[in-house]
Design a protein that fits this description.
five-stranded antiparallel beta sheet, Rossmann fold
Length: 419
């Protein structure tokens, strides 16, 4: 019996370790097309833009594409009803869902609401599998803001209990269906608590209305989904030997020259960049203090071999001091230099992504969604209507190409000087 227990424990440990290793593996493959699906929070085109920013500039895999399918006021059953016509025609290979805010009815959870939400989530996953979607991420809803939701903390506490119950249902569905779960709710609750402790109650994480986050909350949402998608966070690594005037760079980066502590590099792979006044909810810069976005998803590492003493490192217009020990271990340039040579190119790429996603909302909601009704009204024009739908899809594809092309190689210098 003792030997059996020992073997069983070893087997369980091995299975857990294997599952953990699989969960940590990147899920996205070169050429994947990601569908980002959800309600009005998705239709805000903020966390969906941040995800596409990451896919195109940080490049967890090659040649990734994304389409946004947000719909204001939508529930999980509502998306299920339009899934075939509105989304599956895009032939995506991966998808994320984020429902529950409207499913909860802004009131306490009931068995009927729970069952309706559970059944719709399960059917969405089953339909996606049948359509051949390889990567499916079931996201929980986010939270409502503790202070701005109805301007009543008691109402916020009540509804967050409903949203937490939906989180548990989403996790249950993901586990039973063998797909991935993204815990958006807990990430937002954790960051909201920490951020309000520093910036006060007026620093909302789930929006001024308590439901629709500003850019700060959307960055937390994007983090939860990118983690669920298995993104490794390794943007690049630069290794510099000051004595031999030699430098090395990982894929996505090319060393142009290295001499007297000045290293010039050309990079086609960007770090994720942040902007704004840290104390403002419209900024992404302040909120990163409260969750490990840079540590987990945004590592652009500089290593200096066998230095000694103190050094000044200049990257772009900013200079910081580091010890030999820090440089030997490696510093994360993306975290240490928030203003850096990629800040402006990143913003330009994000602008192109915004234009693409701004087109996708009316494409899906106005044109494609209503196409079956148009065909009923004008059956003799079916062929022409199909051509119009195809033209819309083609234009979206062109906008995706423009978004990808906006990520141009950046030449930058790192200057390492001994103090």
């Amino acid at each position: 019996m003792i030997r059996f227990r020992g073997c069983f424990a070893t087997l369980v440990a091995l299975l857990i370790a294997t599952a953990a290793a699989r969960a940590a593996e990147p899920l996205l493959q070169g050429g994947d097309h990601l569908a980002v699906v959800g309600d009005s929070i998705t239709e805000q085109k903020l966390y969906s833009v941040f995800i596409e920013d990451y896919l195109l500039v940080c490049q967890p895999a090659a040649d990734l594409r994304q389409t946004q399918f947000g719909w204001s006021g939508e529930t999980a059953p509502g998306f299920l009803a339009r899934m075939e016509n509105d989304m599956l025609r895009f032939h995506c290979t991966a998808m994320t869902t984020c429902y529950g805010m409207n499913d909860g009815g802004y009131s306490p959870m009931t068995p009927d609401k729970a069952e309706r939400y559970r059944n719709a989530q399960r059917q969405i996953v089953e339909r996606a599998k049948k359509a051949g979607i390889r990567v499916i991420v079931v996201g929980s809803p986010g939270c409502v803001d503790a202070d701005t939701f109805h301007r009543n903390p008691a109402d916020a506490e009540m509804y967050n209990k409903t949203l937490a119950a939906e989180r548990d249902i989403a996790r249950e569905v993901a586990q039973s269906e063998g797909v991935v779960f993204a815990n958006v709710f807990d990430a937002m609750i954790d960051v909201m608590t920490k951020a309000k402790a520093k910036y006060g109650k007026n620093y909302h994480l789930a929006g001024g209305d308590g439901v629709h986050p500003d850019r700060n909350g959307h960055l937390v949402m994007a983090y939860a989904f990118l983690k669920a998608l298995g993104c490794s966070g390794d943007i690049g690594r630069f290794t510099v030997d000051l004595k031999t005037n030699q430098a090395e760079a990982t894929a996505g980066h090319k060393v142009i020259s290295c001499r007297d502590g000045v290293v010039e590099i050309e990079s086609s792979r960007y770090p994720f960049c942040f902007y704004g006044d840290p104390a403002q909810t419209s900024a992404t810069r302040g909120v990163i203090e409260f969750f490990p976005f840079n540590q987990d998803l945004n590592r652009l590492t500089l290593v200096v071999r066998e230095p000694d003493g103190q050094y000044k490192v200049t990257w772009g217009k900013a200079t910081k001091e580091f010890s030999a020990e820090q440089l030997s271990a490696g510093i994360n340039l993306a975290a240490e230099f928030l203003d850096n040579p990629f800040s402006e190119p990143f913003q330009q790429a994000e602008n192109a992504i915004h234009r693409q996603q701004d087109f996708e909302t009316p494409l899906v909601k106005n044109l494609l969604h209503n196409m079956p009704e148009y065909k009923k009204m004008l059956p003799e024009a079916t062929e022409n209507l199909d051509q119009v739908a195809a033209a819309g899809l083609s234009h979206d594809s062109e906008l995706m190409k423009i978004s990808a092309a906006a990520v141009r190689p950046v030449r930058h210098k790192i200057v390492i000087e001994r103090k």
